[in-house]
């Protein structure tokens, strides 16, 4: 029996936007090198939760956070957390591919350059390996100087994933990464996620329950800022322990 290592151990996490209590007493374990899906209706706290995992939420005014988010056994909510290092270790992919308005090459090289890598040969290697990791190298290797925003939506999203991989993170957070994509591009991103989990811990917010069922090892159901249920995905969808989970996954609300 394999012992599962834990990447995040969230304990009694509470978050307020001003006077609005957005996350309430959350406890959750996120295993290493697995896909964890976060599902639930709009406004239930899914995106807020994911943005706390690399403290991007700190960029929002009037946010107050209490509790613990232990990442590799260190509480990132302590004042000692180095945000630059944290975000190097925990990459983030957003709903819509948001490449910088510059070349494909410069998009991928951006992170390594920020972290001090200037050697052209080394950057070339990182760009190539990152694009190969997202199955995009063969499509763009002859046009690396092309503006990344001229690519298709699915290609732009893969550039953004490659950009996140270039800094060699441990974790990739994804907030609705396929919601703006057509079905073919969506399946490519899902296949990519299944490959990436061999090397990375992945947390994905999705409105698409079929997507969660296809790709996630464990799934958490959020409602009104609370975790109603978290379990391995097959169990959560086939035999939920809470009636509200069953009502949501059978389409009775949300």
Condensed summary:
This protein is an alpha/beta fold. It has helices at 46-52, 83-89, 104-114, 120-133, 137-140, 153-165, 183-196, 209-215, 233-238, 243-249, and strands at 6-17, 20-31, 35-39, 63-71, 74-75, 90-93, 171-175, 201-205, 218-223, 226-232.
SSE layout:
Elements: E1 6-17, E2 20-31, E3 35-39, H1 46-52, E4 63-71, E5 74-75, H2 83-89, E6 90-93, H3 104-114, H4 120-133, H5 137-140, H6 153-165, E7 171-175, H7 183-196, E8 201-205, H8 209-215, E9 218-223, E10 226-232, H9 233-238, H10 243-249
Parallel strand pairs: 3-8, 3-9, 6-7, 7-8
Antiparallel strand pairs: 1-2, 1-4, 4-5, 9-10
The overall pLDDT average reads 94
Low-pLDDT residue intervals, each spanning 5 or more residues: none
Strand percentage: 25-35%
Total helices: the number is: 10
Apparent shape: globular
Distance between the termini: 38 Å
Sheet/helix structural class? alpha/beta
What number of domains?
Answer: 1
Superfamily (CATH H level) name: P-loop containing nucleotide triphosphate hydrolases
Strand and helix order: EEEHEEHEHHHHEHEHEEHH
Spatial strand arrangement across the major sheet = 6-7-8-3-9-10
What does the largest sheet look like?
6 strands, mixed
Residues in helix, %: 25-40%
- CATH topology name, in short, is Rossmann fold
Task: Give the class-level CATH name.
Answer: Alpha Beta
What's the CATH architecture? 3-Layer(aba) Sandwich
Rg estimate, integer Å: 18 Å
Strand tally:
10
């Amino acid at each position: 029996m394999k012992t599962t290592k834990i990447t995040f151990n969230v304990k009694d996490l509470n978050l307020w936007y001003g006077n609005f209590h957005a996350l309430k007493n959350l406890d959750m374990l996120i295993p290493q090198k697995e896909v964890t899906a976060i599902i639930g209706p709009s406004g239930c706290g899914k995106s807020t939760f994911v943005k706390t995992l690399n403290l991007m939420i700190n960029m929002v005014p009037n946010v107050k956070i209490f509790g613990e988010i232990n990442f590799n056994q260190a509480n990132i909510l302590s004042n000692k957390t180095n945000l630059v290092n944290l975000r190097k270790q925990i990459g983030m992919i957003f709903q819509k591919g948001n490449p910088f308005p510059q070349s494909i090459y410069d998009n991928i090289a951006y992170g390594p350059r920020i972290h001090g890598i200037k050697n052209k040969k080394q950057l070339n290697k990182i760009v190539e390996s990152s694009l190969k990791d997202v199955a995009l190298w063969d499509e763009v290797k002859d046009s690396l100087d092309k503006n990344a925003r001229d690519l298709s939506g699915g290609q732009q999203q893969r550039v953004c994933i490659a950009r996140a991989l270039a800094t060699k993170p441990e974790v990739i957070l994804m907030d609705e990464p396929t919601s703006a994509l057509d079905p073919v591009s969506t399946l490519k991103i899902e296949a990519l996620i299944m490959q990436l989990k061999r090397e990375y811990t992945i947390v994905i917010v999705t409105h698409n329950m079929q997507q969660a069922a296809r790709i996630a090892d464990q799934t958490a159901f959020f409602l009104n800022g609370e975790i109603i249920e978290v379990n391995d995905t097959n169990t959560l969808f086939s035999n939920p322990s809470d009636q509200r989970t069953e009502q949501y996954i059978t389409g009775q609300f949300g």
